[in-house]
Amino acid sequence: MSATILDGKALAKQIQNELAESVIEFLQNNGAMPCLAAVLVGEDPASEVYVRNKRRACERVGIESQLHRLPMDASEDDLLKLISKLNKDLEVHGILVQLPLPPQITPRRILQAINPAKDVDGFHPENVGLLVQGYPRFLPCTPHGIQQILIRSGIEIAGARVVIVGRSDIVGKPLAILLSAKADGGNATVTLCHSRTRNLPEVTRQADILVAAIGQAQFITADMVKPGACVIDVGMNRMASGLVGDVDFNAVREIAGCITPVPGGVGPLTVTMLLCNTLAAAKQLET
User: What are the backbone dihedrals phi and psi of residue 132, each rounded to the nearest 5 degrees, phi first?
Assistant: First the structure.
């Protein structure tokens, strides 16, 4: 029997409907709309699509969005000056710098320049530290989106064996912290795998919940999955045949109990969690 498909688009729509009501309540109480400022350097086609999708999502829930563009040859100082301006703008509640950045700009320096109270991606060291300590200001968007997929799909997290393939600062590491936290939506036993993990298929076959976030097309094959496991595919790889994930979807769906598709799985939840963080930032900044 084929796995149940976990529809990220439908879940995102459900959460956005809930969020829209909260945005209306915020507007009534504060007389201002939450505002997300996106910064785009250059004209990377994929970044253009991501920013456009985020702005459309803002419109759907009633969040104001700004787009600030800089040319591909902009200097690091140019970008830092723009971020400083947005940090001081009382009408801007969240700041998003779209990655990747051109080679002349150091991403770490840019992300650390964002006011932590407006860092709705959750990348600033202060926000990472709060997450590790169990007192998050914002939950990082993709890990939070994955957690919401699991919770709203009725997948038991507490006590589950979770294996994450990929140790990036954006997905793997924060997801491990989130799912192992002593809190609702946590309490899992988490193994974080990477390129140096020995006998990787042996490890992944132990997973009740297997998360693929390694950035290699169709890396997770059917022989790496325990029958009945929940498989979450974070990958987004552009191939001649179209977009594919880090999981060999057609083969794995015959083994897994449930699985997220690509596209239409984790991606819509990532964008939605960004909107949730923007509203949370607005509430914190307006109080």
Answer: -60, -40
Q: What is the pLDDT of residues 24-49, one digit of tens each?
A: 999 999 999 999 999 999 988 888 88
Q: How many other β-carbons are positioned within 10 Å of the β-carbon of residue 241?
A: 7
CATH architecture of structural domain 31-115: 3-Layer(aba) Sandwich (3.40)
Of the listed 16, 66, 98, 148, which one is catalytic?
98
Active site includes 226? no
Which residue intervals of the chain bear CATH 3.40.50.10860? Answer: 31-115
54 given a catalytic annotation: yes
Give the integer Cα–Cα distance in Å for 285 and 252.
Answer: 45
pTM of the model as a whole: 0.95
Secondary structure of residue 162 in the 3-state scheme? strand
| Assigned token pair, 231 | 């498989």
Please report where in the chains the tokens 């459309």 appear, as a residue.
56
Q: Which CATH class is domain 141-267?
A: alpha beta
For 264, the 3-state DSSP assignment is: coil
**50-74 pLDDT, tens digit each:** 899 999 999 999 999 999 999 999 9
Backbone Cα Rg of the chain: 19
> What average pLDDT does this structure show over 180-205?
97
Assess whether 233 carries a catalytic annotation: no
Which of the residues 121, 208, 246, 248 is marked catalytic? 121
Task: Confirm if 225 and 252 have CB atoms less than 8 A apart.
Answer: yes
